[in-house]
Automatic annotation (TrEMBL):
Keyword Metal-binding carried by entry: yes
Protein name per the record: Aminopeptidase P family protein
Domain Peptidase M24: 310-524
Molecular-function annotations in GO: metal ion binding; metalloaminopeptidase activity
InterPro entries for the chain: Creatin/AminoP/Spt16_N, Creatinase/aminopeptidase-like, Creatinase_N, Pept_M24, Pept_M24B, Peptidase_M24_C, X-Pro_aminopeptidase_P
Domain of life of the source: Bacteria
Gene Ontology CC annotation, any one: cytoplasm
Occurrences of domain Creatinase N-terminal (ranges): 8-132
């Protein structure tokens, strides 16, 4: 970094002084409020040196604090200077209350409205007002003003995603969703989620690692017309023919002027996911805001026949790649050759790289051995990758972006001998995985209602896990797609035909081992039941990769669970055999044998 963190904080403070601010808030987010932040928008990293994926910084006149969640309590101390920052918990120390405790009445707290949701702004403004503290929007972010060696955004051209792969034309999608915008009482909707407007226009991009999207913001009118504000230098020549009538492209610099034209219009936007600046700017121009969900999210989540065909095809090729890695790993362990977590992650990717449709990972691979696997979002790049030990458990959670779909799979592998206790825990996790896979449920059921299916066997023994059981997955889009999910407390959206989710129960014993078994599954109508009284759904597995039978203790399985395990492995064998040969095929035959 070109100058020290202390100098950067001083530069932020001198900018704060010009603006008469007593505090300034720097969240991890950028204006797109997505899960991934491109390098040129890593403001929190620039101001602190912290590389984690979540957090918040508050800079005061004389001091600063960094708020991180439980995943990062060790990492933040390694990366961030304790003489410059106080370390605080993102969830246990509410930032508004912390500001009230540290500032006097009539203080001014600055924020960049592009980097926060409208819901955050409304709540924080109300909280601070009780202590007579003002929340003040800045026109120019003090970080941006001082970031002299800021990386340039990527310049890769927009990719035209074929209508054949998408299964629907952009015009058809825009017209249908525009009608929904009108049904919600609005004239125009702000489509701020990157994967939403990419899906609407049948385009993809290379602007963010792991997520094949284009940076920008879109306005969708009720008649289906759409304006995309993006870097217009990235537009391929034939984009107008590709997206069909009614689409125009403008620079992001034109957004403010375009929002100013919305006077008297009813504007649909999500207070929870769309940035505050877009909504406050439209409101200031005389638009009426209508709070609602992203109208693209549900239709995008329900994959059509073409999208599902792509998902199924890429999962077979991905199954071959991951299985070849697992076969290689078993041979290396048998020869007593053990590697570190980074080498293993690179080796796994090398098998995917031989696929011409492979683009990039769908998230940072979690390659975790022994006690590291007990941290469920572990990243071997955040420190020194650990060396695999004999007689341990290895957990690898990885995924890929292919031109025809997105994958995400976790396998837990025995390295040498494992204990009876470890086999018991893996088997309890497997039972939960099978319960989700085999679930049948009436239309209208949400993932929140199914979540306990995955936990029930762990609960019976006094155990649980601290993450959701499943998340939605996009079609050559985001590996974490809403609004569907399988989790307690937040996944209350009914599951619908064509939705793709992960099924990933786990168990983590601190500093000892971690277990997770993850397949992707798709919702489909339940045809097998006779004389049903209501519309029923079930899941279809998309992932076909062996699970490690060496970690299974049959005494904890029912006969039907043993049958599921054997039938699943028979399917894996049938689907992968045509693409495997030699010692890899010998391995496949061995590991898919009935237990």
């Amino acid at each position: 970094m070109s100058n020290t963190i202390a100098e950067r904080l001083n530069a932020i403070r001198s900018e704060m002084a010009k603006l008469n601010l007593d505090a300034f808030i720097i969240p991890r987010a950028d204006e797109y409020l997505g899960e991934y932040v491109p390098e040129h928008n890593e403001r929190m990293l620039w101001a602190s040196g912290f590389t984690g994926s979540a957090g918040n910084i508050i800079v005061l006149k004389q001091s600063a604090a960094i708020f991180v969640d439980g995943r990062y309590t060790v990492q933040v101390r390694q990366q961030v200077d304790g003489s410059l920052f106080e370390y605080l918990s993102l969830y246990d120390t509410p930032q508004a209350q912390w500001l009230i405790d540290n500032l006097a009445a009539n203080a001014n707290v600055g924020f960049d409205a592009r980097l926060h949701t409208l819901a955050w702004f409304t709540q924080t403004q109300a909280d601070l007002a009780k202590a007579q503290i003002n929340l003040t929007q800045v026109a120019h972010n003090p970080v941006d003003v001082n970031w002299s060696d800021r990386p340039a955004p990527t310049s890769d051209p927009i990719m035209l995603f074929s209508e054949q792969s998408a299964g629907r034309s952009s015009l058809d999608k825009r017209t249908a969703i525009g009608a929904d915008v009108r049904a919600q009482g609005a004239d125009v909707a702000i489509i701020s989620a990157l994967d939403s407007f990419c899906w609407l226009l049948n385009i993809r991009g290379k602007d963010i690692p792991c997520l094949p999207v284009v940076l920008g913001t879109a306005l969708l009118h009720a008649n289906g017309d759409m304006v995309l504000f993006t870097d217009t230098n990235k537009l391929p020549e034939n984009i107008n023919d590709h997206v069909g009538t009614g689409v125009s492209f403008k620079s992001e610099a034109d957004l403010a002027a375009e929002l100013a034209k919305l006077e008297g219009q009813k504007v649909l936007a999500s207070p929870e996911s769309c940035n505050a600046w877009l909504q406050l700017t439209a409101k200031a121009a005389g638009a009426q805001l209508i709070a609602g969900n992203d109208p693209v999210a549900l239709p995008k989540a329900q994959k059509n026949a073409a999208e599902l065909a792509g998902m199924k095809a890429c999962h077979i090729r991905d199954g071959v790649a991951v299985s070849r890695f697992l076969a290689w790993l078993d041979r290396e362990v048998a020869a007593n050759r053990l590697y570190d977590e980074a080498v293993l992650a690179e080796k796994l990717e090398s098998f995917r790289l031989s696929d011409p449709m492979y683009q990039e990972p769908s998230f940072d691979t979690i390659s975790a051995t022994g006690g590291n696997a007990a941290m469920c979002h572990y990243n071997h790049n955040n420190g020194t990758p650990a060396q695999m030990q004999m007689n341990s458990i290895y957990l690898v959670d990885s995924g890929a972006q292919y031109l025809d779909g997105t994958t995400d799979v976790t396998r837990t592998i025995a390295i040498g001998d494992v204990t009876a206790e470890q086999r018991k825990m893996v088997t309890l996790v497997l039972k939960g995985h099978i319960a989700i896979d085999q679930a049948k449920f009436p239309k209208g059921t949400s993932g929140m209602q199914l979540d306990a299916f995955a936990r029930q066997y762990l609960w019976q023994h006094g155990y649980d896990f601290d993450h959701g059981t499943g998340h939605g997955v996009g079609h050559y889009l985001s590996v974490h797609e809403g609004p569907q999910g399988i989790a307690k407390g937040r996944s209350n959206v009914p599951l619908l035909d064509g939705m793709v989710l992960s099924n990933e129960p786990g168990y983590y014993r601190a500093e000892e081992f971690g277990i997770r078994l993850e397949n992707l599954i798709a919702v489909r109508p339940c045809e097998a039941l006779a004389n049903i009284e209501r519309e029923m759904f079930e899941f279809e597995a998309l992932t076909f990769i062996p699970m490690d039978a060496r970690l299974i203790d049959k005494q904890y399985l029912t006969e039907s669970e043993v049958n599921w395990f054997n039938q699943y492995h028979q399917q894996v064998k049938d689907k992968l055999t045509p693409f495997m040969q030699g010692e890899d095929l010998d391995w496949l035959n061995k590991v898919t044998a009935a237990i």
